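For the sake of transparency, this paper describes our internal protein records without simplification. The record that follows is passed on verbatim for readers who wish to inspect the format:
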Amino acid sequence: MSIALEIKAALGTSSLIRKMFEEGMLLKREHGAENVFDFSLGNPDIDPPPAFREVLLRLARESGNGSHGYTPNAGLPFVREALAKKAAREQGVPVGPGNLILVAGAAAGLNVVLKSVCNRGDEIVVIRPYFVEYRPYAANHGARLVETDSLPDFNLDVAAIERALSPKTAAVIVNSPNNPSGKIYPKETLAALAAALTAHGAKTGRLPYLVSDEPYREISYGPEVPSVMAAYRQSIVVYSYSKSLSLPGERIGYVAVHPEIDEAAELVNALVFSARVLGFVNAPALMQRAVAELVDAAVDVGVYAQRRDAFMEVLDGAGIGYAVPEGAFYLFAKVPPRKADGPADDMAFADHLKRHLIIAVPGVSFGQAGWLRFAYCMDRQIILNSRPAFMRAMESW
């Protein structure tokens, strides 16, 4: 008996991020970890804020009967209230506890949202470059991903998004700060997108949702991360503590819906139902209690800023161009012209770098051929130590 054909096909095109990470592990065993520069995986290495450890230890000591039992599917009421205040402050609209549910991280949140709003055959519009897992997430719920190009500076091309909309469009997903480009979409661009979606809804009778994937909201190097809810009432925010508190393994986040969204109460009920039947049941109970006390805590973004600057210095010295990240912790680099004969695409350049023990993820994995993503979730000194390897790689490229 074979596995499901859909899964079999997906395995054949599984994530290049994981593939490159696994190849990096093999190279480390062969050459020694200190000699391999693995920039493949966006796995935060910065410790959570000290307040997290203090809260976690106190909660563990205070645990009583039932403290590790099921919570309400939407989350503990006092946690929803605390996080709604955070969402309201960031989004600039009166998000209440009834507009927010706790989820097991952003991946769970996105699946919960798409299950709640998609009919089979619907379309989800995404903007290149985009997080690779959006495609299987859409497929999980019978929807099809529709890709659009961004502008040369990776800002949203609202005209291109407008052309991609159809009567089957259930939602548009935006991710700001963006993985992999680090772009933060400006307030004016979000306003233009909102106007286009509103006009489309008036024309077709179906107002698309704007789903904002925001795990990197706190990791900004200066520019403000504008509110999608302030721009568009039919908006949903998916948030995770994976990056802001450096807790990717704890799987905790929330989904917040605009308080003026069409049929808001029914949508929240749908989100709660979807979370339950997708098997998440409820977000981790201990982590719910912890994040309720950490609404003002965050990792030191300055550490990532220092790493970003060091990496840009390394790439500048090697002659590799890139998009300057405004947020997140990735450098998206353009494949340089090739001196020697042979292909100059992102797969070829990634293979070439690998021969010099540098691991990066080809841009085609994010729908953006001709680019590579470097994650700088490691000590700054490791980044600086990669300079000779980049120089040697470019000399022979």
